[in-house]
Amino acid sequence: QNSFKTRAVKQSSASAIGLRPKISASFNVAILGASGGIGQPLSLLIKMSPLVSGLHLYDIANVKGVAADLSHCNTPSEVLHFTGPDQLAAALKGVNVVVIPAGVPRKPGMTRDDLFNMNAGIVKNLVEAVADNCPGAFIHIISNPVNSTVPIAAEVLKAKGVYDPKKLFGVTTLDVVRANTFVAEKKNLKLIDVDVPVVGGHAGITILPLLSKTKPSVSFTDKEVEELTVRIQNAGTEVVEAKAGAGSATLSMAYAAARFVESSLRALDGDTDVYECAYVQSEVNELPFFASRIKLGKRGIEAFVNSDLQGLTDYESNALEALKPELKASIEKGIAFANKSK
Ligand code: NAD
Ligand code: LMR
């Protein structure tokens, strides 16, 4: 009975002083493509963040219902919805982080590059609006082919005179999430402890997990390295084939994108210990864009973690050299598209 009394007292004093979840900061996040397969679960996960005060959902269709649904969750952020190009500027005003999962997903038999013709223009138009309305925001590009859409975004921002390479990110977190999961399964490790850096790009052989840098330190046979690397590189295709025409990864992608958003918000909030892999304008090698581990801070990329790329195994060094021509071609394709359609 005593413990019941104590609980009742605690509850009433909490409501008497208006106790609500503590919000340590308040950031606005916009999701462009919010009613899609990734957009919906991603919106839900971001709605759960204590760091978010405003969640701006934008799509060309069906976003009003998604927003009505989400707005009933009793978490701090206010959910606003915006439909179609006329409302895009309003969706972006005052936003700190913009996430772009707008565009078409793969079907079996397609490469990510097969999406270029559909998605390049979508990303270009959306990033133009970002440049005009929230040029200081962190921009997270999910739309494929990421190896080309990020260089397109960079060119658009340059043409608008607002390019800050420290704030433009291709989201490759899903590659890290997959690598961590597959390595933990294979080596019977506790999932929460495993961290595998994944570098390069986000398509086929350009996805390069650096298994020798796995934490906690673990040894692999040559066969394990080959099998794990190929599985991580083909994991997107594994999902595309399992979904058999109904799209590509959405739930695991939303989980990964939410992790990258949360890391960005923590960095914006002043946390000085935030590291993620992402595909960014890079200085770690001769390629102008490259995914590797970066340190995030209030102003975006604060540093590149070069140590991941030092002391690679022969397998990793060879794979790194082998991916460069494909990644370079994808970057050049994106830049050419952006400049042609100026
Ligand atoms: P989807 O078709 O389910 O959803 C896409 C959404 O984008 C739709 O709601 C659509 O209305 C919207 N959209 C289309 N044009 C738009 C525009 N101009 N402005 C705003 N919204 C627009 O697709 P999905 O499964 O959510 O995948 C989206 C993209 O993410 C695809 O290109 C896919 O290849 C990519 N993807 C990337 C990763 C990654 O790791 N980076 C992982 C999975 C999927
Ligand atoms: C993924 O890695 O799951 C995405 O890039 C989607 C795809 O087409 O594979």
Automatic annotation (TrEMBL):
The chain holds residues 93 to 434 of 442 of the full protein. Homodimer. The keyword Protein biosynthesis does not apply. Its EC number is 1.1.1.37. GO terms for biological process: malate metabolic process; tricarboxylic acid cycle. It catalyses: (S)-malate + NAD(+) = oxaloacetate + NADH + H(+). Keywords: NAD, Oxidoreductase, Tricarboxylic acid cycle. Residues 172-337 form the Lactate/malate dehydrogenase C-terminal domain. Residues 28-170 form the Lactate/malate dehydrogenase N-terminal domain. One of its GO terms (cellular component) is mitochondrion. GO terms for molecular function: L-malate dehydrogenase (NAD+) activity. This is malate dehydrogenase. Belongs to the LDH/MDH superfamily. MDH type 1 family.
